[in-house]
Structures are given as C-alpha cells and as structure tokens.
Design a protein that fits this description.
The chain is an all-alpha fold and 151 residues long. The protein has one domain. The chain contains two helices and no strands. It is rod-shaped, with a radius of gyration of 50 Å. The termini are far apart.
Length: 151
Amino acid sequence: MLAVASALYGLFFLFAYVPRLQGDLRGFADWIGQLLTSGNLRQRIDSPRSDVVGTVIRQTDRFVSSVQATVQGMADVAAQVGDATRDVGRGVQQVQDAASKQNMATASATAAVDEVTGLIARVAENARATHGVASQTGGVSRAGASESEEA
C-alpha cells in the first residue's frame, strides 16, 4: 500500500506539480526578460504560490517596484532642475535686457549732458562778449559824458 501511495504521489508530483512549477518559472522568466528588454519598470507580477518560488517572485517584484520609484524620483528631480534652469535663464535674459536699456539710457543722458555743457560754454562765451561790449560801451559813455560836461 505504501508503494502504491508513493507511486501515486510520484505521479502527482511528476504530472501536476512539475508542470505547474515549470509554468510559473517560465512566466517569471518571461516577465524578467520583458522587463529587461523594454526597461518598463511599471510591469508587475504576482504569484499565488506560497513556496520559495512564490516568495522569490514577490520579492523580485517588490525590488523592481522600489527601483521604479527611485527612477521616478530621479526623473521628477531632473524635471525640477530643468524648470529651475529655464527660470534662471529667463531671469538672466531679463537682467540682460534691463542692462541694455540702462546702457542706452546712460548713453542718452551722456549725450544730453554733453549738449547742455556745450550750450553752457556758448552762453558763457556770449556773456563774456556781452560783458566786454558793455564795458566798452560804459567806457565810451563815460568819456562822452565827460566831454559833454566840459563843453
């Protein structure tokens, strides 16, 4: 009887357990192959098995999930760095535009100051000339007044 039970258990193991184990291992191998080929870490696998094979499958899935979360975190940080870089670029452009406008305003103010300086120099020259003429006229007028008094 023990021999018959052992034979039946052996047949069950050979025809039921081994094919199921092979199928589960084949599915796991296909999943890993697809994962490595595509690089898509969002693919998940689960196993209803409660033996070592099921434990290995579930732990591998958790590991892949952890790696996927890490990669996603790095992608998020890279996107934030990209956004910050664009913001800094816009800020630099605004500073450059403001500096250019300030440069033009300074050049315009310099030209205006030069023009006003030239006008002041001409006014001063005219004032000196007018003063000279006024002094001469005053001298002539005094001389004329002296001659009028003598006459």
